[in-house]
Write a structure and sequence with these properties.
The strands form three sheets. A seven-stranded mixed beta sheet has the order 4-10-9-8-7-5-6, with helices on both faces. It has a four-stranded mixed beta sheet with strand order 1-2-3-12. Strands 11-14-13 form a three-stranded antiparallel beta sheet, covered by helices on one side. The model has no long low-confidence stretch (mean pLDDT 96). Helices cover 42% and strands 16% of the residues. The N and C termini lie far apart (50 Å). By secondary structure, it is an alpha/beta fold. It has two domains: 147 residues, Alpha-Beta Complex (Aspartate Aminotransferase, domain 1); 234 residues, Type I PLP-dependent aspartate aminotransferase-like (Major domain) (Aspartate Aminotransferase, domain 2).
Length: 392
């Protein structure tokens, strides 16, 4: 048996490309916030995670340029050895203050945060409890840890309690949830979840990759619910609202230092480049100085959710600027994506396993920098395509 035989037999992508409905790895010529250019055409972007529109903010761009001029393009080593800068530590200090924790630790990507943190803390004999809609990086971190994995139905607190009640009291437990779920735009119910964790002796980690910069005045889900002290670990990425690349985990100092010396994805990876660290720090400063951006992106999310519903689309349980359009079928999802793209609107088609069968959707997401005219254009195109395909 040839190991590569599965590769040669894999025809799904070829067939999708030949039929003209392959929606991934689209090579954009330019990507300037709310608009992108593809083969000379201007397309409105409503599939980005650039929630505050900071990738084009002058202060963020200038900070990245200045850091490159001062430090060069790379640290060429892990933070554990030669790749640790005072810039990294300043960023960590300000991030910890922003989310209300004692300490923070910066990794090179958000994926590495979850892989490293979960596998450092959880070992064989320990138990992980995950929401079934948790991000793949959480699932992969759990698998890497070697701990026992339990799952509960999405945001179903009765099911979570049954799972917790069934577990041995003498086993160490970690519940890990998304704060803002990235596909359907709903929020983890921390006011119900926290008491369950306390009652059954489980620690709680919240992945705020999509909530940071959006919820709680930009400080995340725990702050949104006034429960910062009740959440043990807060994680986020820099590739969304922070307009950069990287991520961090924040919590008690002793816990962060343990992760720092045991997370393999930190120890064995080159540190975040200076430009990315400086851009993330500048983005954090903008969040403090321009809170109106956070208010604006949430107002836009509310407007678009209401408008889609009025047109007749189903938007699930979204309460954030991530607004899904539920289609419920693979082929129809791809066809709708194609017609939207051809009419100048960029969205993300999502099928299983990223979502459950029957919940296939178009993921739309919005930026504080979207204009009213752009939103009107997006809605006009959705109405046209929706009627053309009989969706509305």
């Amino acid at each position: 048996m040839d190991l590569f035989s599965k590769c040669y037999q894999y025809s799904t992508v070829k067939e999708a490309r030949e039929s003209g409905i392959y929606p991934y790895f689209i090579p954009l010529d330019e990507n300037e916030g709310t608009e992108v250019i593809f083969e000379g055409r201007h397309i409105i972007m409503c599939g980005s995670n650039n929630y505050l529109g900071l990738t084009t903010h002058p202060k963020v761009r200038e900070a990245a340029i200045e850091a490159t001029t001062r430090y060069g393009t790379s640290c060429t080593g892990s933070r554990f050895l030669n790749g640790n800068l005072t810039l990294h530590e300043k960023l960590e200090e300000e991030l910890a203050d922003w989310v209300g924790k004692e300490a923070a630790l910066v990794f090179s990507t958000g994926m590495q945060v979850n892989l490293g943190t979960i596998s450092a803390l959880v070992g064989r004999g320990d138990i992980l409890i995950l929401d079934k809609d948790d991000h793949a990086s959480i699932v992969d971190g759990a698998l890497l840890s070697g701990g026992k994995i339990e799952r509960y139905r999405h945001n179903d607190m009765e099911h979570l309690e049954r799972v917790l009640k069934s577990l041995p009291a003498d086993k160490a437990k970690l519940v890990v949830v998304d704060g803002l779920f990235s596909m359907e735009g709903d929020i983890s119910p921390l006011p119900e979840l926290v008491p369950l964790c306390k009652a059954y002796g489980a620690r709680l980690m919240v992945d705020d990759a999509h909530a940071m910069g959006v919820l709680g005045g930009g400080r995340g889900t725990a702050f949104h619910f006034n429960m910062t002290d009740d959440v043990d670990l807060i994680m986020s990425t820099f590739s969304k609202s922070f307009a950069s690349l990287g991520g961090f985990i924040a919590g008690e100092l002793d816990v962060i230092e343990f992760i720092q010396h045991h997370a393999r994805s930190l120890i064995f990876s080159a540190s975040i480049p200076p430009a990315n660290a400086a851009a993330a720090l500048a983005a954090l400063h903008v969040m403090r100085e321009e809170p109106e951006r956070i208010e604006r992106v949430n107002q836009i999310g509310e407007k678009m959710r209401l408008a889609y519903k009025q047109l007749g689309f189903t938007t699930g349980h979204s309460v954030t600027p991530v607004v899904p359009i539920i289609i419920g079928d693979d082929e129809l999802t791809f066809l709708t994506w194609k017609l939207l793209f051809e009419n100048g609107v960029f969205v993300n088609p999502v099928i299983s396993p990223a979502v459950a069968p029957g919940r296939q959707l178009l993921r739309t997401s919005y930026m504080a920098t979207h204009t009213d005219s752009q939103m009107d254009q997006i809605l006009s195109v959705f109405e046209k395509v929706g009627k053309q395909l009989g969706l509305i």
